[in-house]
């Protein structure tokens, strides 16, 4: 591996420090605050704006330390962000990145840290970081978690999501499909799986900015109730419903799923909401939806999943938990299906849409980068960097198979086992 750059300088010292920790030369190019550079000329460029970035890594040598430095504007990747992360991941995988922290290595690292002026108190985390208090998944704490993520500002979300304001995996039928077309295809797929017809009553749990309930009412004549814990989402959705002339068919509420008491509904959709529920609350979640459905009513649960062998995120060091989805939990699709079945539902269909989410996220990253200055104006530089890192890393996770997304269609059977579904899948998707 050919190295080009400074004969010394800060970059040289940083390169030596990282090479000591990794037991090999660092396969990235490092550019430091004093103008020095080192590393392969064709590798992704890691730009260190000041020594605080390294001090953060010294105090938190994990993804949280990297995220804090990036959100604070102290560490960045030059060039297209998703491609840079992807290349960095490939290099990390191919090189092994086996860290050897024996006592000799520790002494070398300590000497290097002193040389770089890294010894000192840990820098304060960026203001975008959050740590929630109170009982996990209590209604009050869940509301605070949702507010942190969704009340960033509707104008900010519009830049990222586009006119559909749909914040979940789209369905891309063709290479030339646009984001708007793909999101319309997704909500229509949900409507068809639920068998919506004129006059039916449908509940959308976690309705976001109202895309599905509006589609259900406008295209199928359904009476739709959408619930969300975000006041900002509810305000936007109500305005959108009124503009579409659908106020007689659509009701938007700021309400927890555990508080809905005006069933039965003919169908229930939950699109990208179950990730917020938490493993311990899945039985409560599933039972609440079961009780709200009439016999032969259908549930469509659309949720991100983790591979069964993947470790559960450590909330103490997780970028996602501290900056993006506090208290969010991903479960294997088998666990989600089991929770749904155990309360009495019959699972009739499972569809994986993993590749579709990778493309959706890349489209959102492209929207954010194309409107970068405006995104910063509407939120903060740190918030924009949080979203770019989160969406880019998530796109790569979906594409690699580390996480997936699945639609589970379930039915509340009658006492005699009736489902109301045609026996052939193609018949209820037509």
UniProtKB/TrEMBL annotation:
Q: What is its EC number?
A: 2.1.1.79
Metal-binding is among the record's keywords: no
Please tell me whether the keyword Nuclease is annotated for this protein.
no
Polyketide synthase-like methyltransferase domain residues: 156-413
GO function terms (MF aspect): cyclopropane-fatty-acyl-phospholipid synthase activity
Q: Which SUPFAM superfamilies match?
A: S-adenosyl-L-methionine-dependent methyltransferases
Entry keyword set: Lipid metabolism, Methyltransferase, S-adenosyl-L-methionine, Transferase
Give the InterPro entries listed for this entry.
CFA/CMAS, CMAS, MeTfrase_dom, SAM-dependent_MTases_sf
Q: Which GO terms describe its biological process?
A: lipid biosynthetic process; methylation
Q: Which family does it belong to?
A: Belongs to the CFA/CMAS family.
PANTHER family associated with the record: CYCLOPROPANE-FATTY-ACYL-PHOSPHOLIPID SYNTHASE (PTHR43667:SF1)
- Identify this protein by name: Cyclopropane-fatty-acyl-phospholipid synthase
Organism source for this protein? Amycolatopsis endophytica
Query: Lineage, please?
Result: Bacteria, Bacillati, Actinomycetota, Actinomycetes, Pseudonocardiales
């Amino acid at each position: 591996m050919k190295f080009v750059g400074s004969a010394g300088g800060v970059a040289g010292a940083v390169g030596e420090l990282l090479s000591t920790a990794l037991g090999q030369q660092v396969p990235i190019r490092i550019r430091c605050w004093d103008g020095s550079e080192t590393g392969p000329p064709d590798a992704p460029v890691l730009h260190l704006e000041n020594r605080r970035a390294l001090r953060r890594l010294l105090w938190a040598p994990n993804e949280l330390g990297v995220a804090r430095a990036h959100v604070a504007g102290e560490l960045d990747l030059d060039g297209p962000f998703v491609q840079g992360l992807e290349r960095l991941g490939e290099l990390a995988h191919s090189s092994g990145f086996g860290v050897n922290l024996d006592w000799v290595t520790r002494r070398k690292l300590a000497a290097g840290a002193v040389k770089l002026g890294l010894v000192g108190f840990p820098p304060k985390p960026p203001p975008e970081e959050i740590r929630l208090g109170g009982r996990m998944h209590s209604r009050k704490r869940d509301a605070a978690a949702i507010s942190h993520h969704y009340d960033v500002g509707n104008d900010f979300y519009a830049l990222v999501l586009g006119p559909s304001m749909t914040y979940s995996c789209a369905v891309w039928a063709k290479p030339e499909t646009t984001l708007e077309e793909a999101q319309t295809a997704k909500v229509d797929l949900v409507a068809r799986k639920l068998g919506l017809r004129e006059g039916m009553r449908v509940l959308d749990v976690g309705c976001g900015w109202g895309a599905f309930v509006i589609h259900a009412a406008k295209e199928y004549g359904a009476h739709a109730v959408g619930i969300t814990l975000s006041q900002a989402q509810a305000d936007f959705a109500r305005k959108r419903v009124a503009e579409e002339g659908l106020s007689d068919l659509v009701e938007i509420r700021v309400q927890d799923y555990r508080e809905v008491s005006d069933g039965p509904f003919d169908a229930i959709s939950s699109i990208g909401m179950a990730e917020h529920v938490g493993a311990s609350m899945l039985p409560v979640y599933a039972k609440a939806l079961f009780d709200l459905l009439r016999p032969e009513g259908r549930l469509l649960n659309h949720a991100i999943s983790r591979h069964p062998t993947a470790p559960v995120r450590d909330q103490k060091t997780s970028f996602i938990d501290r900056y993006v989805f506090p208290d969010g939990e991903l479960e294997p699709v088998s666990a989600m299906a089991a929770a749904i079945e155990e309360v009495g539902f019959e699972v009739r269909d499972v569809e994986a849409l993993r590749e579709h989410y990778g493309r959706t996220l890349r489209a959102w990253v492209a929207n954010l980068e194309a409107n970068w200055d405006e995104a910063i104006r509407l939120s903060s530089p740190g918030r924009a960097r949080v979203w770019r890192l989160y969406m880019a890393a998530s796109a790569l996770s979906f594409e690699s198979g580390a996480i997936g997304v699945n639609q589970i269609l379930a039915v509340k059977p009658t006492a005699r086992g009736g489902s109301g579904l045609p026996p052939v899948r193609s018949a209820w998707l037509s």
